[in-house]
């Protein structure tokens, strides 16, 4: 897996200062179906951990069984318009949760936490089109079971 790596970046997609880590292994949920997208979650186990500092921080997982409500923050480097260019600066947007399914980062229990993973959408990121997200809290047991013992 020498060609697979993960880059931690705060604001810029490629400014030459991003810490680089190789991926040691990938655990895809055993019930994932690429056509229907249930259980759309995987763990990337890095060969060595990132050093946490002012630019690289850990974000706690949503508590097991917790359902985010209200608003959530969505981050990404995806195109901001259909067929548009990809931005060089990390895009952040606040989204209202229309259902009980959380988006990426929420803060409804007194602190920010990792609530969801972007899964799919007909026209991802555009106004008036819903996004589809994987609820992290729903997979807390699967995550714990699939992490290496030294994590």
What does this entry look like structurally?
The chain has one helix at 140-146, and strands spanning 5-7, 20-28, 42-46, 71-76, 91-96, 105-106, 113-114, 116-120, 132-135. The chain has 151 residues and is mostly beta strands. The chain contains one helix and nine strands. The strands form three sheets. A four-stranded antiparallel beta sheet has the order 5-4-6-7, with no helix packed on it. Strands 1-2-3 form a three-stranded antiparallel beta sheet, with no helix packed on it. The chain is globular, with a radius of gyration of 16 Å. The chain has two domains: 5-56 and 140-146, Trypsin-like serine proteases (Thrombin, subunit H), CATH 2.40.10; 71-138, no CATH class.
Number of helices: 1
How many structural domains does the protein architecture include? 2
Q: What are the secondary-structure elements, in order, as H or E?
A: EEEEEEEEEH
Q: Using DSSP, what is the number of strands?
A: 9
Q: Gap between N and C termini, in Å?
A: 21 Å
- Structural class based on helices, strands and sheet pairing: mainly beta
Percent helix range: under 10%
């Amino acid at each position: 897996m020498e060609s697979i790596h993960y880059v931690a970046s705060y604001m810029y997609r490629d400014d030459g200062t991003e810490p680089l880590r190789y991926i040691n292994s990938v655990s895809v949920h055993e019930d994932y179906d690429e056509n229907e997208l249930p259980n759309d979650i995987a763990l990337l186990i890095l060969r060595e951990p990132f050093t946490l500092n002012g630019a690289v921080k850990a974000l706690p997982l949503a508590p097991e069984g917790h359902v985010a409500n209200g608003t959530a923050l969505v981050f990404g480097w995806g195109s901001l318009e259909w067929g548009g260019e990809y931005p060089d600066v990390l895009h952040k947007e606040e989204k209202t949760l229309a259902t009980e399914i959380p988006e990426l980062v929420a803060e409804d229990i007194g602190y920010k936490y990792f609530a969801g993973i972007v899964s799919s959408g007909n026209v991802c990121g555009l106004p008036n089109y819903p996004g589809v997200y994987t609820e992290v809290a729903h997979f807390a047991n699967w995550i714990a079971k699939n992490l290496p013992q030294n994590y």
